[in-house]
Specification:
Layout (H helix, E strand, L loop, with lengths): L1 H10 L6 H19 L1 H6 L7 H26 L11 H14 L11 H13 L14
Helix pairs in contact: 1-2, 1-4, 2-4, 2-5, 4-5
């Protein structure tokens, strides 16, 4: 299921703005990385404690995380303009995942930090938590 979300994010049309185009390009780059892992995973030894197997598992877990990011963004993109339905936080998350994997970002990617910071700062000012649910703070 998660692998399908990464694939779906990679083949989705780029859209009209640079952020959506960048999100699709990063998803395609990560999908390429996932495909590159198939052969090493098939030929890895059976010992899950082996350093090579653990390194492959770490890379695969990061790619599943990327797929989960795309899935959350897609589910929240219902036209209401909610933060989780936007591209900025997802682009920031995928950029971090790509960096952790050592995968270069494709071309110039818009810097999503300012809009993400503005959202989080606005939540704090209005007594809203920075969780995915935008929960009102009780204190």
């Amino acid at each position: 299921m998660l692998s399908g979300l990464l694939r779906a994010g990679a083949v989705r049309p780029d859209g009209a703005d640079a952020d959506r185009a960048a999100l699709g390009a990063v998803a395609r780059r990560l999908l390429t990385e996932q495909r590159a892992l198939r052969r090493p995973c098939r030929t890895a030894g059976a010992d899950p404690g082996a350093p090579a197997a653990r390194a492959l598992a770490d890379r695969q877990a990061l790619l599943w995380l990327a797929a989960a990011v795309l899935g959350v963004r897609e589910a929240a993109d219902d036209g209401r303009g909610l933060f989780l339905g936007g591209t900025h936080w997802a682009l920031l998350a995928l950029s971090g995942i790509a960096g952790r994997l050592g995968v270069p970002l494709p071309g110039p990617v818009p810097d999503p930090r300012a809009p993400v910071w503005a959202e989080l700062a606005g939540r704090v000012r209005h007594g809203v938590d920075c969780d995915v649910y935008a929960t009102r703070l009780l204190w």
